[in-house]
Structure formats: structure tokens, C-alpha cells
Amino acid sequence: MATILLVEDEASMRLLTCAKLKHQFTIICAKDGVEALELLERQPVDLIIADVMMPRMDGYTLVQTLRDQGNGIPVLLLTAKQSFEDKRRGFSSGVDDYMTKPFDTSELLARVRALTRRQGEVVSEELAFGDLSLHLSSHCLRRGDKSVRLGFKEFEVLRLLLQNAKLVTPKDDIIAKVWGLDSEAEDNNVEVYISFLRKKLSFLASQVSIGTVRKVGYFLTTSDEPGSFGGGGMP
Predict the structure, then answer these.
(1) Under 8 Å between Cβ of 25 and 2
(2) How far apart, in whole angstroms, are the C-alpha atoms of residue 52 and residue 79?
């Protein structure tokens, strides 16, 4: 069972989040970043879930401190902050994922499973979803006997969607991780590459499609699944 360090200064939120996770994970708690660092000296963990706004040491500083120490433990930030600049700061400090409060329990569990699984797995040469497989070194996207090579940004966008399959990946996160934190890329840049990828999926006659949550982001789905996020086929 994976061990999660929950770093949250608000007692009620700490208890609530712990209750959502304790049946599937071992949970240890800290009240702020300073206490978290002290615990990590004695207790190895598989994932850190941290609030942003905390006394003594906030979530951003905690992550930056860990990365400066060469510590690559996956970190998921939970925060009430929703602006792109807040997310930009988080990803810049080395955060692996980001959720805003209030959050859906099922989505939190899915993201935690994805991060803890990624930590423990042997790195694969391929990412797969539905009838698709993406070869990470050749950038080749395959369905059955048909394949197509992706351009660099097509590959990076699809890889991000595959790593978060069935979860909504926000446009802001795609921009931050694919174009870079200091990029001037905007939503329409993402939409262009989503369009390119949809054409590649059509060419391969894949059952996989890219769904849209309007003004939010994208998710992968298959033809035998409902579009559970209410997504459509347009950017």
C-alpha cells in the first residue's frame, strides 16, 4: 500500500482529505512545510499532497526545497488558487499535478493513483489507451497495423493526455508543460494541435477520440464509453 504525506494546516480539511484516502493508502500528516521536511527525514513516502497557503513554509517553497535537494517525490498541490499564474508558479517549482478546491473525490483518487503508479512502475517505452499505442522514442502513434509519426508538439500534447487518460487536462497545464512557463502560447495554440491530433486519430480509424470540456481542457475517451465530462469534438 502506497504511503502518502498529507501537508495541510487546516484541521478540518486535513481530516476530510485523510478520510477520502485512508481506505486505499497509508496516510501520514503534517501541518506545514517545515514539519513535512522533518517527517521526510524519518519516513519515506510515495506521494506528497500539499496545500499551498500554510504558515512557516507554503506548498510552493516545500516543493522547491525538495527539488533543490534532488528529491523527486511526486507532489500534488491542493489549493483554492485558480489563476494560470498560480499554476505557472507551481509547475515552475517542480509540482507534478495541481487540483483546485473544492475537488471531486473520484478525481482526486484517480490523480493520486496515477502519480503513485507512475512512481512505482518500470518506465515503459510505450503509452497505451484503447486501441492506440504511442512509442516514446520514435514518436510513432500506432493502431493495429497502421501507424503515423507525430511532430514534436503533437507528441508532447498527446503524451500528456495519455498520462492523464480519462481525466480532464486543462489547457493552461498543456501550455505550461508543452510550450513552457515563459511562453506566449495561448488557448488557440493548443486548439490547433488538438485539431492535428484528431486528424491523425481519424487517419488511423481509432476508437479513441479527444473530448472537450469547454473553456477548461481535454480528455481521452473511446467509442464504447460515454463522454462523461460532457465534452464535444470541437476545441
Answers:
(1) yes
(2) 6
